[in-house]
Amino acid sequence: MGNYLLRRLLIAVPSLLGISLILFTVLALAPGDPFEDLATNPNVPAEVRLALRASLGLDDPVWQRYLHWLGSMLQGNWGFSFVSRIDVDTLIWQRLPVTIAIIGASQILALMVALPVGILAAVKPYSWFDRIASTMAFVGFSLPTFFTGVLFILVFSIELGWLPFVFRADISETGWQWWVEQIKQSIMPVAVLGLFQAASWMRYVRSSVLDVIRLDYVSTARSKGLAERAVVMKHVVRNALIPVVTLIALQLPQLFGGAIVTEQIFRIPGIGSLLIDAILRNDTPVVMAVTFVLSALVIIFNLLADVVYGWLDPRISYT
User: Fold this and answer.
1) pLDDT tens digits, residue range 12-30?
2) Is 99 helix (H, G, I), strand (E, B) or coil?
3) CB 81 within 8 A of CB 285
4) Which long-range contacts (CB under 8 A, 24 or more apart) does 303-312 make?
5) pTM over 0.85
6) Distance in angstroms (rounded) separating the CA atoms of residues 176 and 164
């Protein structure tokens, strides 16, 4: 296992370098000027603006700027935000806990719904439960998150008045009341993201379990007199989850991008809103750092998926 992980990490290095080079080049060649406001401000002399651009290296060739950025990244320096005037890593660490909390809770909710519903629907195919669950799943992943987010706000915030629709980062309460307010304002964004993912994952779980439950070794296990619950949980689910793990590993990094819409709807001060704000203001160091982190997450989660394969299926060996 150790040699396998080392090889995968060595392969990840050129992959990350290639991704960073493409991202940096695209952002560097994209139209727009982060100091556009200064150019139209009569109170800022032209020589001040030119000196500021020169101090940040914006007039250097793209390859030279990339090498400078790469060297700074290797030293732990993620750059300087043109808009906020603070370090990029400080900005990201300010926003990251909120995003991780929302996405993490939504994925737990998605798994709690998708796994039991998908397994039960596959064990009893074409039953009323299967038909209702499949219909709800089709509806769930057909509706975009911005629609369900607005719908939740109309129902639970405006009509019923149960939940706040604006996420507050400065809750004044302390102790248990702080946790209560935090949970209340997180319910809707977590539900929007979690139920959307659960609808998609449920169909994959059902399909995967149906493929495995018809295999010969499952019939052999039943013929030995094992209880149906033991057959399903020990012999079917474990093997059926292998393709589901692949799906989850590939979709988890995408959730950070998908959370952008949800964070905008509920005004959550997370990574998604930071990325949108940086794009609108041509704050390229922030855009570069966030997109590079999302790209790295794709590689990391793929590696985690391969490790989980070995736990789910002992036949898989890492040499």
Assistant:
1) 788 888 888 888 888 777 7
2) helix
3) yes
4) 303/5, 303/8, 303/9, 303/12, 304/249, 305/245, 305/246, 305/248, 305/249, 305/250, 306/8, 307/1, 307/5, 308/245, 308/249, 309/242, 309/245, 310/1, 312/238, 312/239, 312/241, 312/242, 312/245
5) no
6) 18
